[in-house]
Amino acid sequence: MTRRTRSTRLVPTAPRTPRPHRATLAFALTAAASVLLAGCTAPAAAPVISPTETTPALERPAAPEGDLPPELVAELQQTLDDTMAEYTVPGGAVGVWIPGEGSWTAVAGIADVDTDEPVTADMQWPIRSITKSYTVTLILQLVDEGVLSLDDTIDQYIDGITDGDTITLRQLADMSSGNSDYFTDAFIQDFFIDDPERLFTLDELNGYVVDQPAQFAPGTEKVYTNANTNLLGKVVEVATGQDFAEALNERILEPLGQTGTRYITDVSTWSEPHALGYSPAETGTGWEDQIPNFSVLGPAGSMVTTLDDARVWGQMLAEGTLLDAATQAERQQGAPLDAGPPYDIYALGMGETDGWWGHNGEGLGYTAATFHDDDTGATIAVFFNLSDYTPKAHPADQLFRRLAAVIEGE
């Protein structure tokens, strides 16, 4: 096994500093999916309080019974092995579930390159920007309840955002707001240089985009930023009167029985076991540790999950189980991104690739992808503990696409 080098580096578009310690794992922050934090904590309008009823429990879908055919499993396994070798991924976990045919889950490689600890099936994985699909689902649930509208402007909930009287919640959800990214000089100084272990609150994160220049006029382009989703996370808090994590637990995680899924901002609370995150070393061999700080992503990317919970969420997200049918249909209206991750189209907190609906995520040591095909009912989930591959690639998304092609070609 190739060993990790101890060198560290700074990348202009996504600066890094050496990991302060190895005890905890870094959360992902990528140049393509940057974290934006909503500015003023005081909403411009009085808080809108959502209904107090707890979302009823839903029937958690069971995994397809039995194993996939041996010939198919062999091809899927070879695809996993080849992809990990191509991108020099230390470790990963993958699942493929096809109704009427069976299930296949696999783990491979190592979780810790210093100790050679292997990846195990019970590990939790950072899902990066897949978190966005949860956050936007919360917004759409509130739309269904009549608590808010996608045509509300962000200044109804948060003060100080440039073009806030024009930017709608819909434009934040589909990445067409034009809002500034959070990745300002002030944030770079505060996090990457002054204190990589600092725990940022959502309000602090949002503060970095207050009064920042817009990237473009709202609705004229589609540029993917974490800032858009963090603003929506604050809208959830204002509309429900709850912390984001509390609203997420009550409305999604508990009803779906997602016991292996959590919203985490303090990595010291992340329970074992889990894989450590890496990026390729500048020397061309080995890996470098990543900054262990989940709080820099907030509602745009601070969740962890398990393979089985990813299976459930992939299906529930694509089928719109938690939303009214009309809202789900509206959710899936989108267009290609002008800048951002690889999707054929990006809609409201979810994307479509070759007919598969879901989301991917990458940054600071991890890549992830969870997608579902409505036509066949198949779901694919991929987690790798490697990000920032050069030349630019998204290893987990690449494996998802290759596994999908295997399934479709059988």
Short description:
This protein is of the alpha+beta class and 410 residues long.
Keywords:
Beta-lactamase; 3-stranded antiparallel beta sheet; 13 strands; Beta-lactam-related; disordered N terminus; signal; 410 residues; alpha+beta; 8-stranded antiparallel beta sheet; single chain; Beta-lactamase family protein
Describe the structure.
The protein is α+β, with helices and mostly antiparallel strands and 410 residues long. It has a domain at 70-147 and 243-409: DD-peptidase/beta-lactamase superfamily (Beta-lactamase). Helices cover 29% and strands 15% of the residues. It has an eight-stranded antiparallel β-sheet, sandwiched between helices. A three-stranded antiparallel β-sheet has the order 4-8-5. Strand 12 and strand 13 form a beta hairpin. Helix 2 packs parallel to helix 6. The chain is globular. Mean pLDDT is 87; it is low at 1-52.
CATH superfamily of the domain at 70-147 and 243-409: DD-peptidase/beta-lactamase superfamily
Order of SSEs: HEEEEHHHHHHEEEEHHEEEEEH
Gyration radius (Cα, Å) is 20 Å
CATH class of the domain at 70-147 and 243-409: Alpha Beta
Largest sheet: 8 strands, antiparallel
The fold-level CATH name of the domain at 70-147 and 243-409 is Beta-lactamase
- What is the second-level CATH architecture of the domain at 70-147 and 243-409? 3-Layer(aba) Sandwich
Tally of extended strands?
13
- How are the strands ordered across the major sheet? 3-2-1-13-12-11-10-9
Number of helical elements: 10
Structural class comes to alpha+beta
Helix content: 25-40%
- Distance N terminus to C terminus? 33 Å
Query: Could you list the spans in which at least 5 consecutive residues all have pLDDT below 50?
Result: 1-52
Nearest-integer average pLDDT: 87
